[in-house]
Amino acid sequence: MKRTILIVTAALTVLLSTQVFANSAPVVSNVSAYQRDDGSGVLDISFKLTDADNDRCSISVVASNDGGSTWTITPSSSALSGALTNVYPGNRSIAWNSKVDLPGVFGPNYRVKVTADDGQGPSGMVWVQINDPGVSGHEGFNGEMSKYETTNAQYCHFLNEALASGDIVISGGDVYGSGAPYDGQIYYDLDSSIAQISYNGSSFYVKTRDGYSMANHPVLEVSWYGSMAFASFYGWRLPTEWEWQAVADYNGTFTYGCGTTINTSIANYRYSTHPHGTTAVGAFGTYGYGMCDMAGNVWEWTNSIYSGSYRLIRGGCWSGPDHYCSVSRRSPTSPYHSSYGLGFRVCR
């Protein structure tokens, strides 16, 4: 049987702070993956783990079937063997029985990404497991979706990692992609007066407003490309518009992401109290499947095309009227666009 060599990539995780990054990042390097030639489908994956703080780390693996443009395949725990938790720095190896997750699947475009988390990574990523059949005639959602909209702190974390890895460049007051898949596309409008993330010449940091940290507010001024880049960097993705609606309308009875009705005590929209525009994620409560801010706060990019290059956004925002927050409201937007009311959440 032909021995298949997979092209692999390494990723790292660092401590998140609104201003400084005190923790040293664990680094995964020298990654190699070989498929055994005994027909078992097992991939032997080896890598070097380093961490200046000598932290014990958790190891994760994701796979791509399109050459690394997206990372949508998460090996099941039963298919992985070897040390995956409490792993000390050093030369390490694990194995993935790919036949468990991809029975009978073959192809030249598969890639594997290995990541290390020292437990000091971005705070606030909370996943909700959901299986909803969706709106009649459209796909439902079966997977995990972020309970919260992506925050300034989380996006700042991404920008610093992407800067270190050469995946972004700063030009003319904006952040652009560097390299595949979104080379030259705008990610973030850094010099907008509304932007909550800034750059000091060496690293990104989250601003304060009137002495108040904006770290836990949803990121805004981010384009569709910037949202997709964030998701892909960590092996996640944006939901389609119908996946988004399947979750937002709960069991099909919700008119808004906060229930059958909407008012200023349960959602952040035009007439709500919001001295800083956006509000901290989750500030208006939990609804449906345990989700927050699916009505208002910021519009959320989806991965669905409206026409041409235009993508659809959902959910309404802090500056819009209540009917914009309807679960059925569909708004087409250019993927290059970034604004004071436009953010995203991820799923996997």
UniProtKB/TrEMBL annotation:
<dbReference type="InterPro" id="IPR005532">
    <property type="entry name" value="SUMF_dom"/>
</dbReference>
<dbReference type="Pfam" id="PF03781">
    <property type="entry name" value="FGE-sulfatase"/>
</dbReference>
<keyword id="KW-0732">Signal</keyword>
<feature type="signal peptide">
    <location>
        <begin position="1"/>
        <end position="22"/>
    </location>
</feature>
<keyword id="KW-0418">Kinase</keyword>
<dbReference type="GO" id="GO:0120147">
    <property type="term" value="F:formylglycine-generating oxidase activity"/>
</dbReference>
<dbReference type="GO" id="GO:0004674">
    <property type="term" value="F:protein serine/threonine kinase activity"/>
</dbReference>
<protein>
    <submittedName>
        <fullName>Serine/threonine-protein kinase pkn1</fullName>
        <ecNumber>2.7.11.1</ecNumber>
    </submittedName>
</protein>
<dbReference type="InterPro" id="IPR051043">
    <property type="entry name" value="Sulfatase_Mod_Factor_Kinase"/>
</dbReference>
<dbReference type="InterPro" id="IPR016187">
    <property type="entry name" value="CTDL_fold"/>
</dbReference>
<dbReference type="InterPro" id="IPR042095">
    <property type="entry name" value="SUMF_sf"/>
</dbReference>
<feature type="domain" description="Sulfatase-modifying factor enzyme-like">
    <location>
        <begin position="144"/>
        <end position="347"/>
    </location>
</feature>
<keyword id="KW-0808">Transferase</keyword>
